[in-house]
Amino acid sequence: MLTPAETSGHVRPSQAEAEAAVRTLLLWAGDDPGREGLLDTPKRVAKSYLELFNGYRTDPVQLLQRSFEEVAGYDEMVVLRDIRLESHCEHHMVPIIGRAHVGYLPRGRVVGISKLARVVDAFSKRLQIQEKLTAQIANAINDVLDPIGVAVVVEAAHQCMTTRGVHKHGVTMVTSTMLGAFRDDHATRREFLSIINGRSGTFEG
Known about the structure:
Blueprint: H1 4-7, H2 15-29, H3 41-52, H4 60-64, E1 67-68, E2 78-89, E3 95-105, E4 110-111, H5 113-124, E5 127-128, H6 130-145, E6 149-158, H7 159-162, E7 173-180, H8 181-184, H9 186-197
Parallel strand pairs: 2-5
Antiparallel strand pairs: 1-4, 2-3, 3-6, 6-7
């Protein structure tokens, strides 16, 4: 799978170039990248980026390819709620922390539930806006599994809003994508929303 940078013809920088970029940012912030506490910071940051943005190297379609048809006639919705979500705002490159709730109505075949969580990770471990992230998760499941319907709700706190700018703490953004039966059938949508709302607890971004 090609990353967006590779698709647009850009060559991925080397480790040394990435570390040099971090040193430049440290200077820009007003610190000395040569002082003892920051000597290994460029290397650590470059390494952490591989983890924080490993979604660029994960193919969500491939994750969903293996499905199971032996479901004993099961035709009710499958819901995985409260999937921890960690992403980064593509405008300020600061964290987006929250939860995703994913549901689908199978059309004769199901996928392992860990794969649903991995699809959420594959799209969230990229530079994102929450609206696009929500749609990407739903569309991938819909395109590969061809279910009767897909529903995705994402609730998240954006540190671009809580730690900078307007500094509004405790604000949660909620986005949803409903496809197929979840969009067309009000009863199906209400059942899904009832399932994901039947919980307690909060998260801090």
